[in-house]
Amino acid sequence: MNYTGTVYRPPYEANSLLLQVTTGCSHNKCTFCSMYADMPFSVCPMEQIEADLDEAAERWPHTKRIFLEHGDPFALSAERLLAITDAIHSRLPEVETIAMYASIPNIRGKSDAELRLLRDAGIGDLDIGLESGLDEALALMNKGYTSDEALEQLLRLNAAGITYIANVILGCGGPDLCRENAEATARLLNAVQPNLLFVGTLHAEPGSRLYIGMQTGAFRECTFRQLLDEQEHFIECLELEDTYYFGSHPSNIVPMQAVLPLHKEEMLEEVRKMRKHFAPRLDDYPVRGSEGSIRNR
Ligand code: SF4
Q: At 87, which helix (H) or strand (E)?
């Protein structure tokens, strides 16, 4: 299999076949991210994709699930994506789901009819870095869309029957907007009802614009207390009917996985327990390790 650059995937795609169809990210401007900083967005040649699929058909003929790489393959035109799904199904007939990272602008570039064709071709479980439902926070992270635009595009996915995972980031509005960020993000999620919610906590990769802003003081991070308060309020505000809450990212203070609304009270209790555990350090700032993991000082 041909891979260019570091290959990232969500934790729940650990058993998926990773097939690279693009390199880099078509946006590549989020202030906290430096994953593809030195890699311009490009489209992999169809010959390379077909050669990888020929190899996969020999080695893993019973593949059921594929995750397309890199940063946002849903940026490809519907025509190109359909050519790729055809190439997949003709060589790997047992594939049921073709998932990938996607962004709100990627959806905006496709018609409703195209979205339905992509669903029929097996595309689903798009992993969308939504991050927030608060316009000020979206602007701080330079996501390139507003909350209203995100709502409109996610409702279009719902109408087309394309499933997706919504990624959100606690603390991304900074300490002054914790409450607003919790409320606006929950409001957006309640309106679209994602199947899966991936919750992380703000950390900036070294080299990113946000990292530099944190070093110079231009962006203030949240303390343990502020992050815990935001998470508690966020969970309180969620009115999800049947969503898996995946909060096991190493950046999180309270790692948890649960089903909403079933486990809402237990989740709130976990946050409150962690607040007691962190009592002597509530006004400290988390010290970050790799992938934003919290290190003990
Ligand atoms: S966070 Fe995602 S959309 Fe933003 S620059 Fe990084 S890869 Fe691209």
A: helix 78-91
Q: Domain ranges in the chain?
A: 11-284
Predicted TM-score (pTM) of the model is 0.95
Find out if CATH 3.40.1190.10 is the number for domain 11-284. Answer: no
pLDDT band at 70 (very low <50, low <70, confident <90, very high): very high
Ligand 1: which of 6, 27, 165 to mutate, most ligand atoms within 8 Å of CB?
27
Average pLDDT score over the chain: 95
Q: For residue 254, what are the contacts with CB-CB under 8 A and spacing of at least 6?
A: 228, 231, 247, 270, 271, 274
Would you say the CB of residue 199 lies under 6 angstroms from ligand 1? no
Whether ligand 1 lies within 6 angstroms of the CB of 103 is answered as yes
Residue 96 identity: E
Token pair listed for 275: 């607040």
pLDDT at residue 40 above 90? yes
The pLDDT score that the predictor gives to residue 291 is 76
Task: Report the SS3 class of residue 278.
Answer: coil
Pocket test for ligand 1, best of 32, 33, 205 (most atoms within 8 A of CB): 33
Give the residue, by CA position, lying nearest to ligand 1 atom 4: 30
